[in-house]
Amino acid sequence: MDSRYLRTVLAQWATGVVVLTTRTEEGGHHGMTASSFTSVALDPPLVSVCVASDSTTCRAIRSSGVFAVNVLGCDHEEIGRRFATTTATDRFALGDWDVATTGTAVLTDAVAWIDCVVAACYPAGDHTIVLGLVQDAATPRPTAPLIYHDRTYHEGIAR
C-alpha cells in the first residue's frame, strides 16, 4: 500500500482535534496537535493516543509518564495549527493554560480535558499506542468541537 495514497484515504475520516501535552525532563511543557485519540474503557478509566515513535512528544511522554488530552473547540483552530507546526517557538503562548494534577498543561477553555498517567505503550508500526489511566478530567466549556476532515478544519455540530 502506498503510504501517500493511504493518507488520502484516511483523510476522509472526520475526527475531533486534540492537543496532547506532557512534561519535559527540564520541567517545562511540550505539546502537539493530534487526531488519533479514543476512549478505551470506563472501568478502569482508560484512553489511548497514537504518536510517532521517533517524535519528541513520544519521548517526552515515555520519560515523564504523564500526558493530557485537550479537546479543542471550534474557535481553537489557531491553537490546533500552532501545535501542529514544528516552527512555533512557544506553542503555549497562545491560549490560557493551567496545570493539572499530574503537572501537564490543560487548556482552561477547552471543550474537555483528560489528565493521565501512562499505563502502557505498545509499538504499532512507525507509531506508539499510548494507553493512559485517567487521573482527572473536566468539561470547562460546552461549545461545538473543532473537526478535522480532508486536511481541513471545520466547526463541529453546535449544541
Describe what is shown at a glance.
The chain is α+β, with helices and mostly antiparallel strands. Helix content is 16%, strand content 46%. The mean pLDDT is 93.
Structure description:
This protein is α+β, with helices and mostly antiparallel strands. 16% of the residues lie in helices and 46% in strands. It contains 3 helices and 12 strands. The strands form 3 sheets. A 7-stranded antiparallel sheet has the order 3-2-6-9-10-5-4. Strands 1-11-12 form a 3-stranded antiparallel sheet, with no helix packed on it. A hairpin with a 5-residue loop joins strand 7 and strand 8 (105-107). The radius of gyration is 15 Å and the shape is globular. The relative contact order is 0.22.
Main β-sheet, spatial strand arrangement:
3-2-6-9-10-5-4
**What's the average pLDDT?**
93
User: What characteristic shape results from the CA principal axes?
Assistant: globular
What structural class do the secondary elements suggest?
alpha+beta
Rg value: 15 Å
Q: What's the oligomerization state?
A: single chain
Low-confidence parts: none
Count every beta strand, where a strand is a DSSP E run of 2 or more residues.
Answer: 12
Beta-strand content bin: over 45%
- What is the N-to-C order of secondary-structure elements (H for helix, E for strand)? HEEEEEHEHEEEEEE
Number of helices: 3
The biggest beta sheet is recorded as: 7 strands, antiparallel
Q: N-to-C terminal Cα separation, in Å?
A: 40 Å
Q: What proportion of the residues is helical, as a percent range?
A: 10-25%
